[in-house]
């Protein structure tokens, strides 16, 4: 792999720009401008692969910013293997910094990257992934265009520490908020405690959406084995960047494209790995979106069928105790895959970017620390996947079973006659602003049996779908020892939150889903075993509410603030189907057209 790859027999697509005998005028025009920063005509016309580095790092995207450094090693790898490098920016996506929500920008970055990969002289691309939405945005674009592509994780931050305890990104906010509510820390202490979770460059060190999606990019076969978990500042990360650069050139020569790797088997492997790692509830949204762009059948039912019974093996916050550095030292994704392989739960023949199958890559991997990655027969929890719920509230919503705490089980799932069901009185919020304004209002009479609802937070109601379904209990309940209430909504939930929520409800209230008919005070019944979620309201009453809603012009949501919000709202689908730009789905494998 280290030797310079032989020149390809195939005529690479970049030659349509730089070496087109049928149109020497345009060839000259293309050449002259790419010469202007020092590339030579000889290089551009050599027939060597031109490799893009899709750069997601910038000052606006701190989680991925280390890719600016890593790209230097990627370049060295590409050069050494005989390729020519063209690095370019991807629209920034910063999970915590983008208002109103980073979810809005996944499809925008996707759209931009599709245009770049299709419209410029690129034979292959290195996708620099990391922060939550950067991974799906890059993979989705590579799938649509279908030129050889390899992903490189930026890696998690080092572990955070505070007074001798690990503090994990995102997760610490929920804890710190409770300490603040109880008066145990002041506001300065609150910020200090939260910031302790981010001691270095890299993405969130918890099993949030970033670690989830980077792990799944590896499980799908789209990055080199072992790449997902190496912490950003480690030297091994630099080496991985170099090897990734080397490998993409070989992939171009072999014409190994995303459609060769992203098979249904690859997705089913990823679903199982997602359960074993305790992956984020954003994973089904992003993987279902990716599957649609590559043309693979995948539905929420697959998540339940293939993922629900897989036990939780990885002991990372928020479901467990440890953080990213520990995950790496314990063996990372290969160790998890190997553990599942022993149970026959991995399609071992699924190809990966290094030209070997996932089985070949992971067979020899072993768990290095059983406190962090548990063996299959001694899991952290049984059944760590998602349960799909359906009823008159929505066509589908999911619940992550692994976050149901003993406290929650004792309070809500304790009826021996009916151990998997609970009922409660609904308190309904219309969007995050409404929730923030009213959650502590005693007039809502929220008590330990209330079920909190968040609507108007889906892809249309709150462009991009807000991560707001995980709502805290009112301060007066927290002080009384009630830390979590069940939450249900048509928005998303941060992967770093451990709340027992039912989320991603589709269709959302804004497009007329059942949630739009719910009133505060209605009784609601959730049955986890049967997979049902219903408001206990008679059908004729619901029909009357539907007529009233229609007469009022439907569920009201705030106007768009930007042109993109307006555009996306007009074409975006629901969370259960990946919240993709629906008109984009028919464009598949377009580099071949
Ligand atoms: Fe970017 Fe968590 S906020 S990875
Ligand atoms: Mg998030």
Automatic annotation (TrEMBL):
<dbReference type="InterPro" id="IPR037237">
    <property type="entry name" value="IlvD/EDD_N"/>
</dbReference>
<dbReference type="GO" id="GO:0051536">
    <property type="term" value="F:iron-sulfur cluster binding"/>
</dbReference>
<keyword id="KW-0479">Metal-binding</keyword>
<comment type="similarity">
    <text>Belongs to the IlvD/Edd family.</text>
</comment>
<dbReference type="GO" id="GO:0046872">
    <property type="term" value="F:metal ion binding"/>
</dbReference>
<keyword id="KW-0411">Iron-sulfur</keyword>
<keyword id="KW-0456">Lyase</keyword>
<feature type="domain" description="Dihydroxy-acid/6-phosphogluconate dehydratase N-terminal">
    <location>
        <begin position="48"/>
        <end position="361"/>
    </location>
</feature>
<keyword id="KW-0408">Iron</keyword>
<dbReference type="InterPro" id="IPR052352">
    <property type="entry name" value="Sugar_Degrad_Dehydratases"/>
</dbReference>
<dbReference type="Pfam" id="PF24877">
    <property type="entry name" value="ILV_EDD_C"/>
</dbReference>
<dbReference type="InterPro" id="IPR056740">
    <property type="entry name" value="ILV_EDD_C"/>
</dbReference>
<protein>
    <submittedName>
        <fullName>Dihydroxy-acid dehydratase family protein</fullName>
    </submittedName>
</protein>
<feature type="domain" description="Dihydroxy-acid/6-phosphogluconate dehydratase C-terminal">
    <location>
        <begin position="372"/>
        <end position="579"/>
    </location>
</feature>
<dbReference type="GO" id="GO:0016836">
    <property type="term" value="F:hydro-lyase activity"/>
</dbReference>
<dbReference type="InterPro" id="IPR042096">
    <property type="entry name" value="Dihydro-acid_dehy_C"/>
</dbReference>
<dbReference type="InterPro" id="IPR020558">
    <property type="entry name" value="DiOHA_6PGluconate_deHydtase_CS"/>
</dbReference>
<dbReference type="InterPro" id="IPR000581">
    <property type="entry name" value="ILV_EDD_N"/>
</dbReference>
<dbReference type="Pfam" id="PF00920">
    <property type="entry name" value="ILVD_EDD_N"/>
</dbReference>
